Amino acid sequence: MSKKLPIFARTMLLCERVFEKNGIYTLENPLIEIVGVTGVDKDLVIDRLFLYVQMAGGLGRYNLSAQVRALTSDFVLGRSSTKPVEFSSDRTQIEERLFQFDNLLFPRSGLYEFQLIANYAEIEDGAAYLRVNLEE
Q1: What is the pLDDT of residue 90?
Q2: Which partner for 58 in 76, 87, 119, 132 could form a disulfide, CB atoms 3.0-4.6 Å apart?
Q3: Are 83 and 65 in contact (CB under 8 A)?
Q4: Could you list the residue range(s) of the whole structural domain that residue 107 is in?
Q5: Are the CB atoms for 27 and 18 separated by under 8 Å?
């Protein structure tokens, strides 16, 4: 049995909306920063956010997911559903996946990490970052 090689993320983008037609993704409103007016609650809730990922380098089957956390904490604020991906022996194979996050609560201003997970292990260099600035 051959050893699985590590997956690497070629592209990771956060966005507000995604449209897919015939296997082609169109990303709308890519995000690197959110400025929110919090009011009384002081928490920012984002109804829906997407993480688009292009991967390569794998061999065999993986169960992929993504999670989000503040860089200052190991507490996970949200997780996506798990999606399978299978890589053949063709080393040029590229796979695309879309991970959806619903009702994400950002409790404070700061930098947040969206980490790609394969078979319960973090993928090295498999992270996208979002800066959140909360203003009263």
Answers
A1: 85
A2: 87
A3: yes
A4: 8-135
A5: yes
Backbone φ and ψ of 100, nearest 5°: -110, 135
User: What does the pLDDT look like over 39-54, one tens digit per residue?
Assistant: 555 678 889 999 999 9
Q: What tens digit of pLDDT does each residue of 104-124 get? A: 988 888 899 999 999 988 888
Contact, 126 vs 116, CB < 8 A? yes
Residue 3 lies in a domain: no
- Looking at the DSSP bridge assignments, the partners of residue 111 are 131
90 domain-assigned: yes
| CATH number of residue 72's parent domain | 2.60.40.10
> Residue 63: which residues within 8 A CB-CB, separation 6 or more?
82, 83, 84, 118, 119, 120
pLDDT at 38 over 60: no
The pTM (predicted TM-score) of the whole model is 0.86
SS3 state at 119? coil
In a domain, 67, yes or no: yes
Q: 82 with 32: CB under 8 angstroms?
A: no
Residue 1 is predicted with a pLDDT of: 40
Residue type at 54 in one-letter notation: Q
Provide the number of structural domains found in the chain: 1
